[in-house]
């Protein structure tokens, strides 16, 4: 979905990922400087690698995932997420995109920028027409997170921590959030979220990375094949806000079998939609363990990405608003449809739809959520 901050399932896809191999991922070089933000603070860039040569980089500024390097069918590596070269550039240029961003306190839209909880109505400054998008400013993607690098069993990763004060962005309750980034030997980037609150609040966390499996800046994603394990979507209006109706997938929204992204985008353009910005319903409640939700393949490179999640919804967005104005680390412009996002989350505007899976978090409860991005090559698939 467009990012404007400053700062149930079909049995069509493969089973869950196999258990990790018994070798150890590595943390490389601690951290390095990643440019300065306007407050004079130096951001730090952290790197994770595994024995297969996959590399993930992220920064304490915004908790941003800045790079994911994976091989193609010939073993040639490319960075498959859109981003910028430094924290300085992210601060200056990422406001309309949210590349690599953790989103909170409430990912996606809240209708009319208001909701009522326990009899009290909370109102916010609209930032997407009359609605609130991604919690408002300052977003979690422009704050410094505390980073602790540490091993997790046979894997390595990092725990990022952020404290969101009571009243932050207008939301009630002091929220303490941890994100755990883990790179496994199965070429999985796993994100585990955990949060607690001091007052009743609403919470919807996600990651807003944009992917191009041909490599960042390498044209549009129209030739990618996508398959989403969902029988229904939340119907949305012209502002991408749910109308309240859950409807069966049909036409360009029916992605239960692999479809070329370009085909659906063209139909949606003819309908005046501009491309995908669509909330798919995966389940009627969060799952206890991550379940395969989406598979995307880029035929030329052979790269495949599978998304597993405990969340009941995923927002599929085809970077409809990119216009070739900004360039990534490769120096190539990010053109329209130059990436796609798969934002695992609860449905947009859930605080105003009590019939949907709840986003309310109360004192004494612990919010937990997991999403896994698994990268597969044809060779991997033959031997799995």
> What's the helix count?
3
Strand order of the largest sheet: 11-12-13-14-28-24-23-18-21
CATH architecture: Distorted Sandwich
Let me know the number of strands. Answer: 28
Largest sheet: 9 strands, antiparallel
Beta-strand residue fraction: 35-45%
Give me the CATH fold name: Beta-galactosidase, Chain A, domain 5
Total domains:
1
Description:
With 384 residues, the protein is mainly beta. It has a single domain (26-383), classed as Distorted Sandwich (Beta-galactosidase, Chain A, domain 5), CATH 2.70.98.10. It has helices at residues 87-93, 261-270, 378-383; strands at 26-36, 42-49, 55-59, 65-71, 77-79, 102-103, 109-110, 114-117, 120-123, 132-133, 146-152, 155-164, 175-183, 188-197, 201-202, 206-207, 210-211, 225-228, 232-236, 242-248, 259-260, 277-281, 291-297, 304-309, 313-317, 340-345, 360-361, 367-376. Strands 11-12-13-14-28-24-23-18-21 form a 9-stranded antiparallel β-sheet. Strand 11 and strand 12 (155-164) form a beta hairpin. The protein is globular and about 60 Å long.
Overview in brief:
The protein has three helices and 28 strands. The protein has 384 residues and is mainly β.
């Amino acid at each position: 979905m467009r990012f404007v901050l400053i700062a149930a399932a079909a049995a069509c896809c493969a089973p869950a990922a196999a258990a990790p191999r018994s070798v150890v991922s590595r943390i490389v070089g601690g951290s390095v400087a990643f440019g300065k933000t306007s407050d004079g603070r130096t951001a730090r860039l952290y790197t994770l690698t595994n024995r297969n040569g996959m590399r993930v980089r992220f920064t304490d500024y915004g908790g941003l995932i800045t790079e994911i390097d994976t091989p193609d069918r010939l073993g040639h590596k490319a960075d498959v997420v859109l981003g910028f070269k430094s924290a300085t550039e992210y601060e200056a240029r990422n406001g309309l995109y949210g590349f690599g961003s953790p989103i909170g306190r409430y990912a996606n839209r809240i209708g009319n920028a208001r909701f009522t909880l326990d009899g009290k109505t909370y109102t916010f400054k609209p930032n997407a027409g009359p609605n609130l998008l991604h919690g408002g400013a300052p977003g979690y993607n422009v704050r410094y997170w505390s980073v602790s690098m540490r091993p997790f069993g046979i894997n390595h990763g990092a725990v990022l921590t952020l404290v969101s004060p009571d009243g932050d962005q207008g939301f009630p309750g002091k929220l303490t959030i941890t994100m755990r980034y883990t790179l496994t030997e199965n070429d999985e980037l796993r994100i585990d979220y955990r949060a607690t609150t001091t007052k009743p609040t609403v919470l919807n966390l996600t990651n807003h990375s944009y992917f191009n499996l041909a490599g960042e800046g390498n044209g549009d994603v129209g030739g990618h094949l996508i398959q989403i394990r969902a029988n229904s979507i939340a119907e949305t209006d012209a502002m991408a806000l749910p109308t309240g109706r859950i409807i069966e997938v049909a036409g360009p929204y029916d992605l239960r079998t692999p479809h070329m992204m370009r085909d659906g985008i063209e139909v949606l353009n003819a309908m005046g939609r501009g491309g995908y910005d669509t909330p798919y319903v995966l389940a009627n409640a969060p799952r206890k363990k991550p379940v395969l939700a989406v598979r995307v393949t880029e035929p030329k490179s052979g790269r495949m990405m599978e998304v597993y999640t405990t969340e009941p919804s995923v927002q599929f967005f085809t970077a409809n608003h990119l216009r070739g104005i900004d360039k990534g680390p490769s120096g190539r412009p990010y053109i329209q449809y130059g990436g796609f996002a798969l934002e695992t989350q609860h449905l947009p505007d859930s605080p105003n739809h009590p019939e949907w899976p709840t986003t309310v978090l109360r004192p004494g409860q612990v919010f937990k959520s997991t999403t896994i991005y698994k990268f597969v090559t044809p060779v991997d698939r033959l031997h799995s």
